Amino acid sequence: MQRTLRLLAIVAGLCVTTEAFAQKYPVRPVKIMVGFSAGGPVDVVARIVADRLSNKLGQAFVVENRAGANGMIAAEGVARAEGDGYTMLACNSSTITLNKTLFKDIRYDPEKDFAPLTTVVSAPLVLVVNPENPRTANINTVADLVAAAKAAPGALAYGSGGNGNLAHLAMELLSERAGVKMIHVPYRGGAASEVGILAQEVMAVFDPLSAVPLVKDGKLRALAVSSAERLPALPDVPSVAEAGYPGFDISFWVGFFMPKATPAPTLEMLHREIVAAANDPLLRERLETQGVVSVLSSADYAAKIAKEIKELAEVVAAANIKAE
């Protein structure tokens, strides 16, 4: 009986300690590491969320930019940080899902070293052709594009913002699913690939959301979006999944992570506050300049990451893609 009472007392003490920790946190500033330059999508989202967390939790959440190596410098720093709740990572999907498949010298494990909190925004790609290009004037659907590629194996050229980037892998995944072979023309960035398709240098591009105004102006024709669901800005454009390729879902997302050893109460509280920030009407408008607001449970986020790593690794291996 006495042993049982002692055990109950220990459990009660642990519960009180955990609750007290959750109530106290944070007691000093929290650093949010961003692996990209100021002003980019990850930095913008990180600063919007940081302001909200600072105001709500009464301690400064300070964004620190450590740009370089496609986000790997900042990610490695967070992976090696103490799991005390005072170091956070804000990053994009490439840092987590692409780097592991493209780089052999990556010094962190995206699935083992981090505790995922949630995504905040997701920016799907838009599959576009140029209606003024005689070679694509009659291509109105994904099926039309696939038919054109099958009619001229290895002759249809598509562009992307660089070898191994998300637009490149998205087109390779579509090609693999459709059983076609197209020629990849890598440009120096998404803006350059957009110029390339407008100049009729390539026949198709998975473009970032910057393509939406060009689509609405009739300068580009949207065939599909890469996300599982339709894009609110282009409600009449189907997803690639709807166009005949179920399960196709590739987007450029921005999300938050903590070191794996961070206490569960801290993770739960930060998840709750970041989700609240994303759903705040005043902040939502600012976040939507970077994409579609999208939040996930931590478990769903982890499952999404595992699925994307597996899928993209298969694409990289099948297409023999090498990082630049």
Description:
With 324 residues, the chain is of the alpha/beta class. It has 2 domains: 189 residues, D-Maltodextrin-Binding Protein, domain 2; 100 residues, Periplasmic binding protein-like II (D-Maltodextrin-Binding Protein, domain 2, 3-Layer(aba) Sandwich). The protein is built from 11 helices and 11 strands. The strands form 2 sheets. The protein has a 6-stranded mixed β-sheet, with helices on both faces. Strands 7-6-8-5-9 form a 5-stranded mixed β-sheet. Strand 6, helix 6 and strand 7 form a beta-alpha-beta unit. Helix 2 crosses helix 9, helix 4 packs parallel to helix 11 and helix 6 packs across helix 11. The radius of gyration is 22 Å and the shape is elongated. The termini are far apart. About 5% of the residues have low confidence.
Offer a few descriptive terms.
single chain; 324 residues; alpha/beta; D-Maltodextrin-Binding Protein, domain 2; 2 domains; 11 strands; 18% strand
Give a nutshell description of this structure.
This protein has 324 residues and is an alpha/beta fold. It folds into 2 domains: 2-122 and 252-319, Bordetella uptake gene, domain 1 (D-Maltodextrin-Binding Protein, domain 2, 3-Layer(aba) Sandwich); 126-225, D-Maltodextrin-Binding Protein, domain 2, CATH 3.40.190.10.
Helix-strand pattern: HEHEHEHEEHEHEHEHEEHHEH
Structural class: alpha/beta
Overall, the morphology is elongated
- The CATH homologous superfamily of the largest domain is termed Bordetella uptake gene, domain 1
Please estimate the helix content.
40-55%
End-to-end Cα distance: 67 Å
Strand residue percentage = 15-25%
Radius of gyration: 22 Å
What fold name goes in the CATH topology slot of the largest domain?
A: D-Maltodextrin-Binding Protein, domain 2
Question: What CATH architecture of the largest domain do you see?
Answer: 3-Layer(aba) Sandwich
Number of separate strands = 11
Output the number of helix runs.
11
**Biggest β-sheet description:** 6 strands, mixed
- Give, in spatial order, the strands making up the sheet with the most strands: 2-1-3-10-4-11
* Model regions low in confidence, pLDDT < 50 over at least 5 residues: 7-22
